[in-house]
Amino acid sequence: MDQQQQLAMVQRMRENVVGTGAALQPSSTYAVTVEEIMIPTTKGDTRVLVYKPDKERTTTLPVFFNMHGGGFIFGQAEMDDPWCRLIADRADCMVINIDYSLAPEHKFPTAVHECYDVVQWVHANPEFFSANPSLFAIGGHSAGGNLAAAVCLLNHQRRGELPIILQVMDYAVLDVATDPAEKPSFDEAIPADIARTFNAMYLETPEDGHDPLASPVLAKSLQGLPEALIITAEKDSLAQEARTYAARLEASGVKVTLKEYEGAAHGFTHFGDLQMAEDAWYRMSDKIREAFSK
Asked: Are residues 178 and 195 in contact, defined by beta-carbon separation less than 8 angstroms?
């Protein structure tokens, strides 16, 4: 499938994606201010949504960077909007929700470097946000979880220039080199042919899938990476690679909290049982708050 055929297919898929109006919403509302800004990156200006708890304060805020899911080829920051509000309020932090560039228009490693550049720019310009430049955490959902892990690996490659103290991976895809048909199969899981299409659109060549920034689970060394919260869904074909990554992190001396939700399917924090979804979001926000309070 050439680039034009990929574009035609992805446009049809984007038109058919379930709208955010059908997605889960938190059971509570949160007093949070939201601002849309553009941040300069190597890809160009990148749009982000910035969330801050709506309360008076005299101190700077630690920052959690969030990346949405969508198989690298669809989705937008607004998909996570209600939950970024929850995190900002519950973790008492700033949330920067990155609307990163999508494939196939922008293939690997564009989004990895773009997300890294956003974190780097905030670190270099903390006064713009009243941000604490020494307390950063990063996380994402599905493809966004992949990007979060990749940013941490890239930061490690660059000798830890960014103060990322926690990574959160929510049912993340961590291996785009293995054929999805060879991964565990469940009726509730993303069909292998669709997952294969997502990967093909994200990667310039199949060989790129073996790059650790595309498949973090294949990284030779994980020593020195930040603490991790890894959330998996039992009925998700991606759960096993997340378990493997968690075990490899632990073996490398990284503190890991692994939580698997029994009976849950991929995407359960956005579409599924609200009580289970909120438990996961509370777990994420509480771990972020704990990391920032140390």
From this structure: no
- CA 49 remoteness from chain centre: 15
The verdict on pTM exceeding 0.90 is: yes
Select from 129, 127, 101 the least CA-distant residue to 115: 101
DSSP 145: H
Gap between the Cα atoms of 145 and 251, Å rounded? 20
pLDDT of residue 2: 72
- Of the residues 80, 81, 113, 142, only one is catalytic, namely 142
Estimate to the nearest angstrom the gap between the alpha carbon of 11 and the chain centroid. Answer: 22
**Per annotation, catalytic residue among 92, 211, 236, 270:** 236
State the pairing for strand pair 227-235/164-170: parallel
User: Strand 164-170 vs strand 131-141: parallel, antiparallel, or unpaired?
Assistant: parallel
Cross-sheet strand order for the sheet of 131-141:
32-41, 44-53, 94-98, 61-67, 131-141, 164-170, 227-235, 256-265
- What backbone torsions phi and psi does residue 25 show, to the nearest 5 degrees? -125, 145
Q: Which domains does the chain have, with CATH numbers?
A: 36-293 (3.40.50.1820)
Catalytic residue from among 113, 141, 266, 270: 266
What span, in angstroms and rounded, lies between the C-alpha atoms of 131 and 122? Answer: 8
- Position 18 pLDDT exceeds 70: no
- Look up 142 and say whether it is catalytic: yes
The question of whether 236 is a catalytic residue gets the answer yes
Q: Kindly tell me if the per-residue pLDDT of 16 is higher than 90.
A: no
Active site residue 81: no
